[in-house]
Design a protein that fits this description.
Helix content is 41%, strand content 11%. It is of the alpha/beta class.
């Protein structure tokens, strides 16, 4: 009886994400093929020739341009992410948003994301994004806080980037009003450092999200 190719779906998608030559559109295509085959990734055979013989279209998608890195390095990195409380959100995950596949195919947005915090916030239907200038005036910053506070009072999760200015004030306004917030990073999640103004809040009211390789700065 053949061993599984990958131990679990999270590890499968992390391996695919780390392969050189496989971008967002190809990752989305891999998921479409898995769906077409009604295939559980945990049952794919370990042996590459057997895999290619049984699922030739899927094998071509993965291996024609994709090149895997060191299994040991990838395994160590995966375990480190788990130790740091990082979740991998991928096609097929219970909190995955189907629109992310469309974004990957149309705009090249990664269909695999790295998250930390209150993971349930990832696909809540009551989320609104607020973005603005890094160099907003005092009036603009106050308005951002008040807007976020009002949204939190109506039980909306507030989504924004993680830079100074409007983004930071938006998060602060939502959290100080007792609401929740999602911080979208422009770099890898392992590079995230909590702003001292948010240090009294915890993982129950914040979610950190990144589409980049976890160590990318």
């Amino acid at each position: 009886m053949e061993e599984p190719l990958y131990l679990e779906p999270d590890f499968l998608w992390f391996q695919l994400f780390c392969m050189s030559g496989i971008g967002p559109k190809r990752l989305a295509a891999v998921h479409r093929e898995l769906q077409r085959l009604n295939l559980n990734p945990e049952t794919v055979p370990l042996n590459k020739p057997a895999f290619a013989e049984r699922y030739p279209d899927l094998a071509r998608l993965i291996f024609r341009k994709g090149k895997a890195g060191s299994p040991e390095v990838i395994g160590q990195e995966y375990e480190f992410l788990r130790q740091q409380g990082v979740s991998i959100i991928h096609p097929g995950h219970q909190y995955y948003l189907a629109t992310l596949l469309s974004d990957a195919e149309r705009f090249g947005v990664s269909p695999v994301l790295f998250c930390k915090g209150r993971i349930q916030l990832f696909n809540t239907s009551r989320s609104l994004a607020v973005v603005g200038s890094r160099d907003a005036s005092d009036v603009g910053l106050k308005a951002a806080q008040q807007l976020a506070s009002g949204l939190a009072a109506k039980h909306f999760n507030v989504v924004s980037g993680y830079t100074k200015g409007v983004d930071s004030e938006t998060h602060l306004g939502a959290l100080e009003a007792g609401g929740t917030t999602t911080m979208v990073l422009s770099y890898g999640i392992l590079q995230f450092k909590i702003d001292h103004r948010f240090s009294r809040f915890d993982d129950q009211n914040m979610l950190i999200v990144s589409q980049f390789y976890p160590r990318e700065s």
